[in-house]
Design a protein that fits this description.
Helices cover 19% and strands 21% of the residues. It is α+β, with helices and mostly antiparallel strands and 180 residues long. The chain has one domain. The protein has a 3-stranded mixed beta sheet with strand order 2-1-4, with no helix packed on it. Strands 3-9-8 form a 3-stranded antiparallel beta sheet, with no helix packed on it. A 3-stranded antiparallel beta sheet has the order 5-6-7, with no helix packed on it. Strand 5 and strand 6 form a beta hairpin. The longest helix has 30 residues.
Length: 180
């Protein structure tokens, strides 16, 4: 029997993580079944987090100023990526839709560019890092993917300062911007 508040809270944490992972998996399956896009990196324009070429924005999310798509959804970088190659394809790209490029953001210091994905699509980059959204973010201003390790690497919200976000600063609570 679970008696103390601390024991109850410790019991809830793994269940919450499992629920988040289950939701991400369900979203991937749903996207694969209902979307007309390929499983190797396309994103549907009906997806609220999908991003397309054009202007990006900034927003304060959990104490950090991050890049967002035009709809206000946080952008992420994937640690295994290089400045010339995305390593997020297939099911990964279903959960972390690539931002189609080129893209820019007003009053943001840094370098915007593009890379060619393995599918031939153009993906936006910021300071040499391909950028993505996350299907686990259900509303603007969320950063549920920040600090997650999934699909073979760690995901970080893209900060406009180029430095790490405050520890525990995002809604995911495991902090850190791209900080490269």
């Amino acid at each position: 029997m679970i008696n103390s508040l601390a024991q109850r809270e410790a019991f809830k944490r793994p269940r919450m993580l499992l629920a988040l992972l289950a939701a991400a998996a369900a979203a991937a399956i749903l996207a694969a079944c209902s979307s007309g896009t390929s499983s190797s990196g396309g994103s549907s324009s009906s997806n609220p987090v999908s991003a397309s070429a054009g202007s990006l924005q900034t927003a304060r999310v959990g104490g950090a100023t991050v890049l967002t798509n035009a709809k206000g959804f946080t952008l992420y970088a994937f640690a295994p990526d290089t400045s010339t190659k995305s390593n997020c394809n297939g099911a990964c790209a279903q959960n972390w839709p690539p931002v189609n490029g080129p893209a820019t953001a007003a009053r943001v210091k840094g370098t915007f560019g593009t890379i060619k994905r393995s599918t031939g699509a153009t993906q936006a980059t910021f300071d040499g890092h391909p950028v993505y959204t996350f299907v686990g973010d259900k509303a603007p201003g969320q950063a549920n993917g920040n600090g997650l390790t999934a699909f073979g690497g760690r995901w970080h919200e893209v900060t406009t300062s180029g430095s790490a976000a405050p520890a525990g600063g995002s809604s995911a609570g495991s902090g850190g911007g791209i900080g490269y």
